[in-house]
Each structure stands twice: as structure tokens, then as C-alpha cells.
Amino acid sequence: MVQELTTATFDEATASGVCVLDFWAPWCGPCRMMGPLFETVADDMKDTAARFYKLNVDEAPEIAARFGVQSIPTLLVLKDGVEAEVRVGVTPPPALRKIVEEALR
Predict the structure, then answer these.
(1) Cβ–Cβ under 8 Å, residues 18 and 75
(2) Of 13, 19, 21, 31, which residue is the catalytic one?
(3) Catalytic site includes residue 19
(4) pLDDT tens for each residue of 32-55
């Protein structure tokens, strides 16, 4: 299941473990393409330790700025709050699964 994060919930939610974040905006065409792919991978990997989140850059621009997000969609993997991987653009499900599996090792 993918949870929506806000500025208020971001730090606590991503402080530990493997967190996969989809930085997006509702007006972004590629983001609308990425959304269902992200949801599918999150559902496929629900039995792993990885947690999946979405963050609307229009509602939390300071978080996007903190991680240098300039283009969306951007996928960010955090491991114990530290950046482990960044992908810009639509990421196909097999590539996303591989990124998450590597972060879980």
C-alpha cells in the first residue's frame, strides 16, 4: 500500500528502514503514468520490509528541495533516512523492483 506523505509526516515516516518515495504532482503527465506502476510494485512487494510513499511536490516543496528534486516523477530510495538511490522519469516496474531489492540487502 502506498501512503501519501506531507511535510509534517515525512521525517518520522522515513527515519528508519527502506523507504521508496514517488515525488509527483497531479498536473504532471509522466507522473500519472508512473503512479499505477508504482502502486503495482508496492502491492507486489507488500511482504517485504520496504515501505512505499508518494509526496506531492506542490504541497511539500521544501522536502523536494531538500533532496534536490527538480524534475518529476522522481523516485527516491532512503535507507535509514539516507539517500540510497534516485531515478528521474518513469521507471518500469522491473527496474523499480531491482532498485528496492538492492536497497533491502
Answers:
(1) no
(2) 31
(3) no
(4) 999 999 999 999 999 999 999 999
